[in-house]
Amino acid sequence: MWALGVTGTYLGDYFGILMDAPVTGFPFNVTGAPMYWGSTLNFLGVALYTGKVAGILVSALVFVLYWFALQWEDPFTAEIYAKRDRDRAKAQQGHKSL
């Protein structure tokens, strides 16, 4: 959240509030979805700490659901930033022709 800020963390790109550039510092240099994987590891850690098999199974389910979510979220995010770049390029061309 420190790197993304409030709008970047809480679905800012879904509402057209885009970052100037992708965040590439830690933890994003390790994984593209650190909050998903951190959440999954948190569930797993609590399950292991308390020794609950059900918690480990729920952690596995969370992992699978996050993985599926990323199959749609990553391309969606890439496309909205690509669209913004295309729109900026068109705007720049429009200003040059005036």
Give a brief outline of the structure:
The protein has 98 residues and is mainly alpha-helical. Helices cover 68% and strands 0% of the residues. It is elongated.
Domains (count): 1
Q: List low-confidence stretches.
A: none
Query: Would you list the SSEs in sequence order as H and E?
Result: HHH
- Going by helix content, strand content and strand pairing, the class is mainly alpha
Q: What is the tally of helical segments?
A: 3
Residue-averaged pLDDT: 84
- Distance between the amino and carboxyl termini: 41 Å
Shape: elongated
Strand fraction band?
Answer: under 5%
Number of strands: 0
Largest sheet: none
Q: What is the CA-atom radius of gyration, in angstroms?
A: 18 Å
Tell me the helix content. Answer: 55-70%
Organism: Aspergillus sclerotialis
Transmembrane segments: 43-68
Pfam families: PEMT
Membrane topology: Multi-pass membrane protein
Structural account:
The protein is an all-alpha fold and 98 residues long. It has one domain. 68% of the residues lie in helices and 0% in strands. It has three helices and no strands. α2 runs antiparallel to α3. The chain is elongated. It starts with a helix and ends with a helix. The mean pLDDT is 84.
